[in-house]
Amino acid sequence: MTFLSPWALWFLAGVPIVVALYFLRLKRRAITVSTHLFWQRALQQTSRNAFFQRLRHLFSLLLHVLILLLLVGALARPVLDHFIHEGASVVLILDSRARMQATSADGTTRFARALDAARSYAREANDARQFSIIKVDAAPSVVVPFTGDEKPLLDALASAQPTDAAGDIDAALNLASALLDARKGARRIILLSDRAPSVEPRFPLTTHAFPAGEENAAITRFAKRPLPANPETSEVLLEVRNFGKSPIRTSVELTYDGKPLDVKPIALAPGATSLTVFPALTKPSRTARGWLTARLDAADALALDNTAFATLPPARAKRVLLVSKGSFFLEKLLEADATVKFELLTPDAYSPALGAKFAAVIFDGGVPPGLDLAKAEGNFLFIKSTPFPAGAVVDQPLVTDVDAAHPTTRNVSLQNVTILHAPSLAIPPPADGWQFAAPLRSFDNALLITGQRKTQRLAALAFDVTDSDLPLRVAFPLLISNTVHWLAGDEPDALPALPVGQILRNGFHQFGDAWLAVNTFSAAESALQTSAETSLAKLPSAPLTGWPLWQWLALAAFALLVGEWWLHHQRRTE
After folding, report:
1. 8-state DSSP, 66
2. Is the residue at 361 inside a domain?
3. Do 476 and 334 fall into the same domain?
4. CA–CA separation, 565 and 139 (whole Å)
5. CA-based nearest residue to 286, from 341, 245, 324
6. How high is the pLDDT of residue 88?
7. Which of 384, 570, 543 minimizes the C-alpha distance to 463?
8. How far out from the chain centre does Cα 466 lie?
C-alpha cells in the first residue's frame, strides 16, 4: 500500500492526546451536604476517577481512537499497489474508436465502462506516480501529458466522447512507448479497450477488456454511379454483412433528403454478405440537398454501422456556347442534356471575351482567327479544325487505342467506327504551361487531343463527325457529354476541398456549396468479437462504485462519528 499524502500521518500524534484526555482526572469541588442519599450517582462517578475503574468503558476510548485513525487514513489517501508495483510513469490508452459504442444488455457502452476504469486510475495520480492519457480514434493523440494532478486527468475524461472513426491500437502503443522512453523509474502502459493488441510493446502492458453484445449486422458498402447510357440516371449499390453468430431477417430503407425511395428485405446467415442494387434513380431537382441515406432495420449491439450516407447532388446546368454555322447532331445532343444550357452563335459573331463567360465553348468546323492558346481564356472543344499543325490526310483511319481511364473516353466504345478522312496529328509538346495527351488514337496519329493548364482545359477532335458514322452510334452523345463536362470542370467522384484535420463523425458535412458523405465502412470495427486473452481485469479501486480507498475511510469515520453521538445520548458511552 502507498500513501499519496504521507504528510497526513503526522496527525497520528493526536492518538496519545485522545488517550490522555480520556484519563484526565476531573477536579471536583467539595460541598457539605446533610445526607448522601441523593448523591449516590455522583459518588459513583467520583469512584470512576480511579485508574483501573476507567477501563470499564474502554469501548468508548477505542471508538474515539478508531474515528481519529480513519480520518488520518482518509487524509493520507492510501492506494493498493497490486496493479502497478511502485509505478512512476503510467500511460492510459483510451480506445474511442467506433466499436467502443457497442452496447451490452443493460445498455452500457464499452466506452462508458472504459471511462469509469480510467477515472479510477486518474484518482491515484500523485507527484510520485504521474499519468498521461492517449486517445485513439482515426489516429492516436496525447490528450494529457504526464502529470501528478488528478484534476486535468479527470477533466479530460469528462469531455471524452467516442468517435465514428476506425483506428489503430498498435500505433497508440508505439506512441505510448515513445512517451515512456523519456521517463525514469518504473514505467507501464494501461490499455482500456475491448481487445488485446497485435503487438507487444517495449514496456509492461495491462489490458482491460470491456466485452459487450457481439451480434451485429452492418452496411459495409454504399455507393452510387451514373448509368453510362443515361448520365441523368444513377444506380445505387448496397452491401450488408452479418458479423454475428445468428441468422437475421431484416430490411433496408433508401431515402433521399428524408423522403423514402425504396425498401428491400434482407436475410443473412452468420457471416454472410448481401449485395443489393437500387436501379434507375433519377437525378433530383436543383433545390435538393442531395442526401442519400440507407438505414438497416436491425436491433444489434452497434447502431452506428446500420446507417450509411452518400451524396447524389442535384443537376446544375453548365452554360455551353456552340459556335457553328449549323450542326444538327450537336444541337440535338446538347438540347437533350438537362445538365447543359447551350447557346448557339455564328462564327463571325464570336469574340475572345466570350470564352471566359461560359463553362465550355465548342467550335464546330473552324478555329477563330487569331486564337492564341498562350493568352486565351476559357475551355474549348474543337471539332474538325484544330489549333494544332496537321499533316497529310489519312483515309479511313482505324481506331486502335482508347484510354478508358481518361474522363473524355470513359465508358465510350468506338469499335468498328467508320471514319472517311482524318488529318495526321501528333501530340504537341508542352508549351506555355499546357500539357497534352491523346486519349483516342489511330496507331501513331492522334484522333482526339486533350490539354490542361492549371484549371483551363481544351479538347480537339481531329476529324469531322459528319464524315463518319459516329453520330449514329450510342458512343457519340457519351463522348461529347464526357468531353463537355470534363471541360466544365466536372470530375467523376471528385471530393470537395477539405479543411485540415480528420472528420470523426459519420453523416453529411458541408464544405462551401458541396456536401461530403462520411462513413466508417470498416469490417474491423463492425466485427465486435473479443479475443479470449482480454477477459475483464479487476480494477484497483473499490469494485462497487469505483471510489478510491480514502473516500471509503472518510465515509466510515463519518458513520462511526454519528453512531458514537447516538450512543452518547443513549448513555451507552462517555
Report:
1. H
2. yes
3. yes
4. 57
5. 341
6. 76
7. 384
8. 54
CATH number at 152 reads: 3.40.50.410
Question: What gap in Å lies between CA 119 and CA 107, rounded to an integer?
Answer: 20
> What does the pLDDT read at residue 574?
59
- Measured CA distances, 445 to 226, 386, 437, 461, 509 (Å): 32, 14, 12, 12, 46
Q: What is the pLDDT of residues 198-220, one digit of tens each?
A: 888 889 998 888 876 789 999 99
Among the candidates 315, 344, 369, a domain finishes at: 315
DSSP 4: S
> Does one domain contain both 339 and 459?
yes
CATH number of the domain within which 367 lies: 3.40.50.880
Same domain? For 98 and 189 the reply is yes
What pLDDT does residue 335 have? 86
Please indicate, yes or no, if residue 341 is contained in any of the structural domains.
yes
The reply to whether 175 falls in a domain is yes
- Let me know the angle formed at the C-alpha of 231 by 225 and 236, rounded to the nearest 5 degrees: 25
* Contact residues for 370 (Cβ-Cβ < 8 A; gap 6+): 352
**Rg of the chain's alpha carbons, rounded to an integer?**
40
**How far is the C-alpha of 101 from the C-alpha of 161, rounded, in Å?**
10
Let me know: does 405 contact 375? Beta carbons within 8 Å.
no
* Cα 216 from Cα 46, distance rounded (Å): 79
Q: Residue 501 to residues 161, 497, 498: CA-CA distances in angstroms?
A: 17, 12, 8
Among 16, 44, 76, which residue terminates a domain?
Answer: 76
Q: What's the confidence (pLDDT) of residue 285?
A: 61
What are the CB-based long-range contacts (under 8 Å, 24+) for 509-513? Answer: none
- Identify whether residues 343 and 311 lie together within a single domain: no
Residue 486 is predicted with a pLDDT of 92
| Residue with more model confidence, 536 or 243 | 243
Angle at 333 between CA 332 and CA 337, to 5 degrees: 115
Question: Do 133 and 172 belong together in one domain?
Answer: yes
| Burial (CB count within 10 angstroms: exposed 0-12, middle 13-18, buried 19+), residue 448 | buried
Number of structural domains in the chain:
4
Hey, which residues does 451 pair with through a beta bridge?
436, 458
110-122 and 150-158 are packed helices; what angle lies between their axes, rounded to 10 degrees? Answer: 170
Phi, psi of 56 (to 5 degrees): -60, -30
The per-residue pLDDT for 511 is 78
Q: Are residues 349 and 363 in the same domain?
A: yes
Quote the domain boundaries for residue 305: 217-315
Q: Are residues 272 and 410 in the same domain?
A: no
In a domain, residue 82? The reply is: no
pTM for this predicted structure: 0.60
Q: Which of 352, 349, 324, 357 is nearest to 480 (CA)?
A: 324
Do residues 442 and 327 both lie within one domain?
A: yes
DSSP string for 485-534: HHHTT--TTPPPP--SS---S-EEEEETTEEEEE----HHHH-----GGG
User: How far is residue 258's CA from residue 350's CA, in Å, rounded to a whole number?
Assistant: 46
Give the up-direction half-sphere exposure of residue 519: CA atoms within 13 A in the CB hemisphere: 22
Give the separation between CA 480 and CA 342, rounded to whole angstroms.
13
